[in-house]
Amino acid sequence: MPNIANDPSRKSWIKVPANSDFPIQNIPFGVFLTKEDVITIGTRIGDCAIDMGALQQLGYFEGIELTDDMFMQDTLNDFISDGKKTWRLVRNRLAELFDENNPKLRDNKEHRDVVIFDIQYVEMLLPVQIGDYTDFYSSKEHATNVGKMFRDPENALLPNWLHIPVGYHGRSSTIVPSGIPVHRPMGQTLPNGETTPVFGPSRFVDFELETAFITTDVNIMGENVPINEAEDYIFGMVLLNDWSARDMQKWEYVPLGPFLAKNFASSISPWIVTMDALEPFRTKGPKQEPTPLPYLQQKGKNAFDINLEVYITPENSEATLVSKSNFKYLYWSMAQQLTHHTSNGCRVNSGDMMGSGTISGKNKDSFGSMLELTWSGKNPLMMKDGSERKFINDNDTVTMKGFCQNSAVRIGFGEVASKLLPPFVRK
Predict the structure, then answer these.
(1) Cα dihedral across residues 371, 376, 382, 387: positive or negative
(2) For residue range 168-202, what is the model confidence (pLDDT) as tens digits?
(3) Of the residues 142, 183, 340, 341, which is catalytic?
(4) What is the rounded distance in angstroms from the CA atom of residue 29 to the CA atom of residue 31?
(5) d(CA 338, CA 225)
(6) pLDDT band at residue 155, thresholds of 50, 70 and 90?
(7) Based on CB atoms within 10 Å of each CB, which residue in 48, 135, 178, 339 is the most buried?
(8) Is the pLDDT confidence value at 398 over 90?
(9) What is the 3-state secondary structure (H, E, C) of the chain?
(10) Structural contact between residues 301 and 286, judged by C-beta atoms closer than 8 angstroms
(11) Closest CA to 265 of 119, 79, 398
C-alpha cells in the first residue's frame, strides 16, 4: 500500500509555522484533553491539535475498517493493535483530508469548529497504556564512558556488550508525559570512604537522553520474531528522559543492575511519530564488530538521522543547550533490540515501550547525560545565568528536543520537558 502521506510537496490548509516539527508530512498520534474536558485521540498539524474522535463521528474515516469508538478512547492501544495496514490507511486519509486542495473539511466551518483546537488549549496525556517497559543500553560511547567511571577504564565494555543488545526491565507505573514534574528520589547511597550506607535524597540526579519505540502486538508466548520482520511491529517513536540517580545507582547496581536509581520517573514526549513518517530519514548505523550472531544480522539502512538536543533551564532563568546528539549513533538498532527481546519467547504487547538507552556520540558535547558531560561532577557545566551544574538542581527544567530534516521537509517530535522538584513530603 503506498505511503502517500509522505509526499514532500503536499501543503495543508492549516497554517504551519516555519521550522515546525509538525508539517502535514508528519501526522503523529497522541491523546489529549480538550477544554471541554473530553479525552480524545488526535493528531497535530502546525499548532493545531485535531480531534480524531470527532472526525470519526462525522464520518471522515468512512471506508476504513475501524471499531465505532476507535478514536474515542483514552489510549492508542486498540488502534496500535490494528496493525500497520490500518495505521497507514488512517494516516493517508488524514493527509488527504487536510491537503490544501481538499475542500471537504476546509470549507465546512461547523465541522472545523469541533475538530480543530489551538494546541495551547489542550492538555497532552500519556498516549498509550504502557503495560511493560524495557530500557536498553545500546550506545557504545555511553557504555564505554560509564564503564570507565564505574568499573575498569581498561575494560570499560563488559564481554557481552558487543554480542547482545543489553537491557533491563523498567517500571511502567512512573512513566509520565512532558510537563509533569518529577521529585528528587530518596534512597540508599554509600558516601565516599564509608563502609555503611545512608538513606536520604539523591545528590546526583541526572537526565538520560533517549528515544523509545512503541510496539503493536508482536508475538505469542514462546514465539520469536525474525530480524527482517521486527520493524513491522514498531508503531512509532517518542523522546525519552530516563531520569537517573547516579549515587543510588552506583551503590545498588551490582549484581542485578538498575533498580530504584532508575524507576522513580521516566518522561516521554506526548506525540508518537510513526515509522512511516521517519522513513525518508533512514541511514546506516555504526559498523558492528564482531559480526552479530545470525539472528541479529540486519541488512540495509537500520538507523534514522534524528537530531537530538538537551537544555537545562534554572528557575527564573533562560535555557542553556548542554548536549547535541543523534539517534544514528546507537550501536544496536531498534529491530535488533526487538528481535533479541523476543528471541527467548518473551511476549511483547500493544503499547509496550522500549527505551534506546542513553544516546551519546564521540564528542564531549554529544554526551547524553550529566554523568558524562561533567565526568561525574569533576567538570561542571556553566549555565547562561552564571551558575554551575554538576548534576540537576531542584527546580531545574530539563528539555529534550528531536527532529529530522532534509532539503524538503522537517519531521520532529516536539519536546519532553520536566521540572525536578525537591523530595516529596507526605502531608
Answers:
(1) positive
(2) 999 999 999 999 999 999 999 999 999 999 999 99
(3) 142
(4) 7
(5) 8
(6) confident
(7) 135
(8) yes
(9) CCCHHHCCCCCECCCCCCCCCCCCCCCCEEEEECCCCCEEEEEEECCEEEEHHHHHHCCCCCCCCCCCCCCCCCCCHHHHHCCHHHHHHHHHHHHHHCECCCHHHHCCHHHHHHHEEEHHHCEEECCCCCCCEEEECCCHHHHHHHHHHHCCHHHCCCCCCCCCCCEEECCHHHEEECCCCEECCEEEECCCCCCCCEEEECCCEECEEEEEEEECCCCCCCCCCCCCCHHHHEEEEEEEECCEEHHHHHHHCCCCCCCCCCCCCEEECCCEEEHHHHHHHEECCCCCCCCCCHHHCCCCCCEECCEEEEEEECCCCCCEEEEEEEHHHCCCCHHHHHHHHHCCCCCCCCCCEEECCCCCCCCHHHCCEHHHHCCCCCCCEECCCCCEECCCCCCCEEEEEEEEECCCCEEEEEEEEEEEECCCCCC
(10) no
(11) 398
Judged against a pLDDT cut of 90, whether residue 335 lies above it is answered with yes
How many CA atoms lie less than 13 Å away from 269 in the CB half-sphere?
Answer: 28
CA distance 142 to 152: 15
Tell me the per-residue pLDDT of 279-308, one tens digit each, with 9 for 90 and over: 999 999 999 999 999 999 999 999 999 999
Query: Of the given ranges (131-140, 234-243, 250-259), which has the lowest mean pLDDT?
Result: 250-259
Task: Specify whether the CB–CB gap between 95 and 4 falls below 8 A.
Answer: yes
Asked about 142 being catalytic, the answer comes back as yes
Q: Are strands 133-136 and 123-125 parallel, antiparallel or unpaired?
A: unpaired
Q: What is the CA radius of gyration of the chain?
A: 22
For residue 353, how many C-alpha atoms fall within 13 Å in the half-sphere facing its CB? 32
Percent of the chain whose pLDDT exceeds 90: 96
C-alpha cell at 273: 511519530
The total of other beta-carbon atoms located within 10 Å of residue 319's CB is 16
Phi, psi for 327 (deg, rounded to 5)? -60, -30
Position 35 scores a pLDDT of: 85
Asked if residues 208 and 244 have their Cβ atoms less than 8 Å apart, the reply is: yes
For 251, the grid coordinates are 551503590
Residue 281 backbone dihedrals phi, psi, to 5 degrees: -110, 20
**Cell numbers representing residue 187 in the block:** 534512597
- Length in residues, the chain: 427
How confident is residue 345, by pLDDT bands cut at 50, 70 and 90? very high
